[in-house]
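Submission sheet (multi-component)
Chains listed below:
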Amino acid sequence: MAITNTRTRYGTVAMTLHWLIALAVLINIGLGLYHADYIPDKAPPDLQKFGFQVIQLHKSIGLTVLVLSVARLLWRLVNPVPPLPAGMSPTLRFAAHVTHFLLYFLIIAIPLSGWALVSGSQLGLPTPYFGILHWPNLWFLADLPRATKHALHPTLVLTHFVLAWSAIVLIPIHVLGALYHQFLRRDDVLKRMIPGTRAAKTA
Amino acid sequence: MKNLLAALLMAPLLATPACAAGWTVDYTKSRLGFTVQWSNEPFSAVFKSWKADIDFDPAALAHARASVSIDMASEASDEDEFDNGLRGVFGFEVGQFPTARFLATSFTHKSGDDYVATGTLTIRGVTKPITLPFTLTISGKTAHMTGAAHVMRLDYNIGEGEWAGDKPVSHEVTVTVDLSATRS
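Outcome: structure written.
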């Protein structure tokens, strides 16, 4: 298998990044939805501690998505992706491009908005990235006075929320698109992103 | 031995308000709270519910005594998220440790209106010695007292783990009290 993309297949770098990001995003959607349930101070101590660890893990995984996604975007810029199969209608091509563009946008914008949310939080909770290094806050938000952070907080929460829910809506569309290619169009669009599968003989 | 026995028998009598100079706290005019540095800015909160039993006569400091119990769940500030965290498992853990206690057992007069109370402070089940310098003015039957004590939150296991650093929440906490009372 080639490291770089070819005319018919994604290379190992693109595939690894795609599937790592996919896994991290799915885990983080789960953790994020759980975390969305506010845990009150009257909750059992173990539940409070668990909730706290969920938040911290969500932050570490989200920042990982950010790093991987920036790497993926840069890799894509220097390493063109295989073209869509011939025979797709212009509408379908357009839909595919828009979906992919939005997904790239979201996997970078969601962690950025989360990082902004954490940095601009009045709490100032540290981010010990998987417990191995101290991840800095965005200084221009972290250095704001508490009153400003207080006023800004709902906007930061809403931004992260709207972006995250956009992904929750868009990901199934992306998956359905892949399944459409695989089972209805019977082309190699899905296969060329799956390691070990053999590309169909030329498009 | 006889003296000790006598002292033990006397103890309940001394504790009754009727005996020495008891004071009734006016809670509407009194304030008990604390201040920490949080993200390089002072953060202050108060306890809305607490109760002080004070037995204090400036002319008989040897017999002075004060006992304060604080309902930790009554902590309040203008930041709901802070309050939730402070009352929770990483803060005071009010579910397990609902009450903090300050017991002042020794009083000394410094100069003018300035005194120092020493005793113990119990938070989260941990008891440590504490010194509270305060200023007291008595006019007729009313008294006004202000004081501030410095405590280190980690002494009481407040904010451990990922909150253990001096940032964003400073280790040093200033406990402040502003108390008005009338002689009972």
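Remark: Helices of chain A lie at 12-35, 45-78, 90-119, 139-142, 146-185.
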